[in-house]
Protein: Acyl-CoA thioesterase
Amino acid sequence: MFSLKPDKQYPKKLYSKAVIRFQDCDPLKHLNNAKYFDYFFNAREDQVATIYEFDYNDYFEHNKTSWVVYNHQIAYVNSAKVSERIGIISSAIYFNDDTLVTEFVMTDENCTHLKAVLWTTSKYIDVITGKKTPHQPEVNAFLTAICVEGIDFEHINLNSRIKTIKQELLAGTFI
Structure:
């Protein structure tokens, strides 16, 4: 089961690469809009398991709690194309007592050109009752350790965040 290591510095932005697969593209060789979610979620699951040593299944079995998607906001900025090598950056950008917002960013392989941005808001639930429940203290400690600082999620919108991401990618400061 996951345990926060107090002496470990946890990266706040997780990065991995992927290749856009032919079967995930439309006849124009663009990544199908629905497939962006698969690339984002698969990357995040692998990143969190590898870098944070977090096993979702084990955690949920022991704690009987889970995050359930409440909503998504997505912007398709530039098409990802068949056989293209891409970068996927994921990070927790906001949390409160029962909510987590994860930001997903897809770029070209060199992390200079933005492809898409997704914000996923999840609610923390008790899997037995199916109702919202507050994060346990250890979950709050974990989220505090991994949440990106300096993003005022409650006072920005996705479009303004995209502008900031583009500027940071151009300057080489996003990751």
Summary: The mean pLDDT is 95. The first strand starts at residue 14 and ends at 19. The longest helix spans residues 35-51.
